[in-house]
Amino acid sequence: MRITVTDYLDVVSSWCFWSEPTWAELKRHYDGRVEFQWKIALMDPTGLPTSREQEQWFYRRSGMMMRSPFMLRTDWYDPTLKEWLAPNAVAEAAKEFGITDDRVRLALASAALREGRKVSDWDVAAEIGAAAGNLEKKKLLETAQSSAVEKRIRASTAEFHAMQITQRPSFVIDTEIGDRAIFSGVVKFEPLAATLDSMLDDATAYAAHKAHFGGPPPK
């Protein structure tokens, strides 16, 4: 039975940044048993701070909660922007070149949150993404600014809102039999792992039942 974990995120979200060690550990621990993917869920004004001072306050709180030895930077932040399309589009565009892992989006997040780089600038975001993915900057930028990539981002953001959740990241776990678990804003490994273990146990039971009794009788 196929089990898929989808990470709905915004590249420049600090809480998404803090969740990355958990995401990496999940992928390592369940390698070969669970499928992992990420999708963009753009933050809008309802989830964005209104000033750099407010952003710093959030960073201090989340940094303390995560016991971080460093504080995130706010140099990159522009309170006039209602969304952060450029870095998210660049990360999404890298998929068109076969890069479906985390390296491009992680490079963009780190450049903003650790280095304070202005990733809202398309050229800056493309430069960072191209370096991380070993891609040609011009082609990556053109793809990131294409209507197809924006349409995909808008669609995955709509998927996120359709689940009536508000926190990024949100981890959505789905199975072939229609079971679903949603962790909105939860970034600790243990609750996610416990749910995956339970679903994997169910998958083993379904396989055993099928081996003994076959598929369901026809209607």
Which second-level CATH architecture applies?
Answer: 3-Layer(aba) Sandwich
Mean pLDDT: 94
Helicity, in percent?
40-55%
Number of domains: 1
Number of helices: 8
Largest sheet: number of strands, sense, barrel closure: 4 strands, mixed
**What is the CATH topology assignment?**
Glutaredoxin
What's the overall geometry?
Answer: globular
- Measured on Cα atoms, how large is the radius of gyration? 19 Å
Give the class-level CATH name: Alpha Beta
Distance between the termini: 22 Å
What string, H for helix and E for strand, traces the elements in order?
A: EHEHHHHHHEEH
**What strand order characterises the main sheet?**
2-1-3-4
Extract low-pLDDT stretches.
Answer: none
Q: Care to count the β-strands?
A: 4
CATH superfamily: Glutaredoxin
Q: In what range is the share of β-strand residues?
A: 5-15%
Give a written overview of the molecule.
The chain is of the alpha+beta class. The chain has a single domain (3-213), classed as Glutaredoxin (3-Layer(aba) Sandwich), CATH 3.40.30. It is 51% helix and 11% strand. It has helices at 14-29, 52-65, 85-93, 103-113, 122-133, 137-144, 147-162, 189-213, and strands at residues 3-9, 35-40, 170-175, 180-184. A four-stranded mixed β-sheet has the order 2-1-3-4, sandwiched between helices. Helix 1 links the parallel strand 1 (3-9) and strand 2 (35-40). Helix 3 packs across helix 6. The longest helix is centred in the C-terminal third of the chain and has 25 residues, at 189-213.
